């Protein structure tokens, strides 16, 4: 491993430490190196706060002159909530900059690198590029698609059943799998279920299996006719925000939920594209879909799934009447179906976890 790769790996390690908290901004870290010594370190902590390069350069101070800056995402060259980072890099008289990824934002893409080179700074791009893309997969997806990054998570038997034909599902998977799944709740801005899941299971949809979780996701219910029980846990427990997406225009029904602190998002139809567009317009950048069967089917048939997290329990449930993940109309051929790349396989107790990331034609 070269010294340059080593320093960029340190940058990536820092950037990984801020999942979700920077949204809608990317996760970015920066390190300033001079004479093989790290003299400045910075991480972007929250949207609207100083960018990573500013923290790192401020820590380096006058020593930044002639130094090398490593950053996982191209420094910005435009005024947003904060001034352009490029100006600070030039002012600090940095000699060279290593950038892992160009910024997909059209306001930035290539302009930051171009401005640095125009100022006489040597810039190299693409160092640890694929690892850096993985860290900001949600951000890149948001910029290109203008929709939330969607993770579909399910616990099931080997034959893909998520409940028996009598609708018994607690618990198909073991405690290790269920605890692991709660980390995905923390790392997504929102969790989505259908109203039937709320009626049947009365879930809290909080990461309660984790000790002192760092974040609480918004709980979202798709409810065409506003059938969510007013005594449901997620309506009354106050543990996290609850939103209901509905096509029912009845203002009187809306008010019954609103007085309990629930946000109602009325849409023209509960088509998945419409739902996702509405959620994104309301600030949701990453969404964890937790069922049930109709919701899974709707997302799979619509094509709006970017990541699958499946926990398989080594048991068979059987029955065509049992609830299962792969319901819906499906795909007619193997050319138009949904394809994924396996990114993780792990044994958890007696279960097996498989994580798959979608193959998008445009690479995003």
Report on this model:
It is a single chain. With 364 residues, this protein is an alpha/beta fold. The protein has twelve helices and 16 strands. The chain has helices spanning 3-15, 52-60, 85-91, 111-118, 129-135, 137-145, 175-186, 195-201, 233-236, 251-258, 272-281, 293-302; strands at residues 29-34, 37-43, 68-73, 96-101, 122-125, 149-157, 161-163, 190-194, 218-222, 242-246, 263-266, 286-289, 307-313, 323-324, 340-348, 351-358. The strands form three sheets. Strands 11-10-9-8-12-6-13-16-15 form a nine-stranded mixed beta sheet. Helix 3 (85-91) links the parallel strand 3 and strand 4. Helix 3 runs parallel beside helix 4. It is elongated, with a radius of gyration of 23 Å.
Low-pLDDT stretches are none
Average predicted confidence as pLDDT: 89
Number of strand segments: 16
Q: Main sheet, how many strands, which sense, barrel?
A: 9 strands, mixed
Gyration radius from CA atoms, angstroms: 23 Å
The 3D shape can be described as: elongated
Helix tally equals 12
Structural class: alpha/beta
Helical fraction: 25-40%
Taking strands numbered 1, 2, ... along the chain, how are they ordered across the largest sheet? Answer: 11-10-9-8-12-6-13-16-15
Question: N-to-C terminal Cα separation, in Å?
Answer: 28 Å
Percentage of residues in DSSP E strands: 15-25%
């Amino acid at each position: 491993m070269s010294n340059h790769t080593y320093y960029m790996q340190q940058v990536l390690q820092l950037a990984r430490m801020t999942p979700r908290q920077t949204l809608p901004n990317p996760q970015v870290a920066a390190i300033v190196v001079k004479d093989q010594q790290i003299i400045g370190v910075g991480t972007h902590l929250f949207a609207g706060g100083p960018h990573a390069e500013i923290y790192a350069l401020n820590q380096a101070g006058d020593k930044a002159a002639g130094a090398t800056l490593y950053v996982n995402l191209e420094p910005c060259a435009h005024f947003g909530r904060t001034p352009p980072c490029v100006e600070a890099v030039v002012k600090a008289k940095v000699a060279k900059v290593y950038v892992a990824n160009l910024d997909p934002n059209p306001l930035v893409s290539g302009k930051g690198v171009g401005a640095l080179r125009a100022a006489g700074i040597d810039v190299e791009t693409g160092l640890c590029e694929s690892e850096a893309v993985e860290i900001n997969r949600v951000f890149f997806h948001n910029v290109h698609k203008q929709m939330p990054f969607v993770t579909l998570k399910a616990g099931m038997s080997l034959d893909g059943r998520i409940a028996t034909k009598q609708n018994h599902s607690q618990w198909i998977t073991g405690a290790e799998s269920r605890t692991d799944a709660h980390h995905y709740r923390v790392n997504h801005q929102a969790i989505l279920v259908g109203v039937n899941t709320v009626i049947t299971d009365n879930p809290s949809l909080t990461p309660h299996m984790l000790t002192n979780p760092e974040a609480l996701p918004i709980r979202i219910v798709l409810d065409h006719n506003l059938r969510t029980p007013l005594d449901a846990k997620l309506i009354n427990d106050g543990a996290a925000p609850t939103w209901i997406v509905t096509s029912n225009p009845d203002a009187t029904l809306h008010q019954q939920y609103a007085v309990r602190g629930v946000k109602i998002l009325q849409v023209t139809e509960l088509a998945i594209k419409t739902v996702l567009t509405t959620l994104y317009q309301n600030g949701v950048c990453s969404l964890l879909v937790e069922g049930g069967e109709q919701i899974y089917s709707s997302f799979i048939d619509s094509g709006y799934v970017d990541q699958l997290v499946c926990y398989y329990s080594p048991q068979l449930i059987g029955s065509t009447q049992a609830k299962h993940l792969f319901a819906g109309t499906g795909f007619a051929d193997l050319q138009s179906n949904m394809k994924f790349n396996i990114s993780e396989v792990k044994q958890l107790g007696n279960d097996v976890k498989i994580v798959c990331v979608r193959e998008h034609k445009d690479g995003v």
